[in-house]
Design a protein that fits this description.
- This protein is α+β, with helices and mostly antiparallel strands.
- 27% of the residues lie in helices and 20% in strands.
- The protein has 4 helices and 6 strands.
- The strands form 3 sheets. It has a two-stranded parallel ribbon with strand order 1-4. Strands 2-3 form a two-stranded antiparallel sheet. A two-stranded antiparallel sheet has the order 5-6.
- The longest helix is centred in the middle third of the chain and has 16 residues, at 79-94.
Length: 155
């Protein structure tokens, strides 16, 4: 579910120390992830990764987190939810031990950087389409109501 109301209020009350400073470069060419995309991967399994709200696109980044870095002219979507999904995956599949708080702070950026190093990508801490495709994800089977016990790289 995507949340339209309350995002700005929640973001304004967030401690500033949890927000990351965005590295310059490739991420700036990508849209900010502001939701999640669920993609069928076969055998009844699905994977949910950060994506673009009301779009099939997954070519986005999470380096900016949520407000104040988001474009105020486009206040819709739920980037905090997308970040929480990424944080949960980093914890479950990579043992990152991140507090799942919906902010792309230093610990989330460091965990993404570690995954990038592990997979041979440029270790810049920017979550984008290459990192998404290289990462392992926990799968979900909605018909059976179960999650996979292992992590896979289906995207």
């Amino acid at each position: 579910m995507f949340v339209r109301a309350g995002l700005a209020i929640a973001a304004l009350t967030a401690p500033l120390g949890l927000l990351a400073t965005a590295p310059a470069g490739a991420a700036e060419a990508l849209s900010q992830c502001d939701g999640s995309r669920t993609v069928a991967v076969g055998g009844g399994w699905e994977v949910t990764t950060p994506g673009l709200w009301e779009s099939t696109s997954v070519t986005c980044n999470l380096v900016y987190g949520d407000f104040p870095h988001r474009n105020p002219a486009e206040p819709f979507g739920d980037p905090a939810g997308a970040i929480k999904g990424l944080q949960q995956t980093l914890n479950y599949c990579y043992g990152a031990k991140i507090i799942v708080n919906g902010y792309y702070g230093a610990t989330t950026r460091d965990a993404v950087t570690a995954v990038q190093r592990r997979t041979g990508l440029p270790a810049d801490g920017i979550y984008g389409p290459q990192t998404r495709s290289a990462m392992n994800w926990r799968l979900h089977d909605p018909a059976k109501g179960i999650d996979s016990t292992n992590c896979y790289s289906p995207v």
